[in-house]
Amino acid sequence: MLELRPNCECCDRDLPPESADARMCTFECTFCAECADGVLKGACPNCGGELVRRPIRPADKLTKYPASTKRVLRASPCA
């Protein structure tokens, strides 16, 4: 089950579970579309994997399977 992390690891922008602007790699590193498509050029700075649009969990499933509240930020800036 995907964690649906709540923020961009680069700029700390909020990415709620229903956000179409969330991007992630296969390790669930999570970034906003602006950072993913811009400075990161579609590649995860942590693993080198492809960043793709994160799926949106149906609202009725969020009650039983809530999104993560743990915020993750990179130790070094995204560049």
Can you put this structure into words, describing what you see?
The protein has a single domain (1-61), classed as Herpes Virus-1 (2-Layer Sandwich). Helices cover 11% and strands 10% of the residues. The protein has 2 helices and 3 strands. The protein has helices at residues 33-37, 59-62; strands at 22-24, 30-32, 52-53. Strands 2-1-3 form a 3-stranded antiparallel β-sheet. The longest helix is centred in the middle third of the chain and has 5 residues, at 33-37. It starts with 21 loop residues before the first strand and ends in a 17-residue tail after the last helix. 28% of the residues are buried. The mean pLDDT is 96.
Which overall shape is indicated by the principal axes computed on the Cα atoms?
globular
CATH class, anyone? Alpha Beta
Structural class: little secondary structure
Order of helices and strands: EEHEH
In this structure, how is the largest beta sheet organized? Answer: 3 strands, antiparallel
Number of distinct beta strands: 3
Widest sheet, order of strands: 2-1-3
Counting structural domains, the number is 1
Q: Proportion of β residues?
A: 5-15%
Mean pLDDT: 96
Just name the CATH architecture: 2-Layer Sandwich
Which regions have little confidence, pLDDT < 50, spanning 5+ residues?
A: none
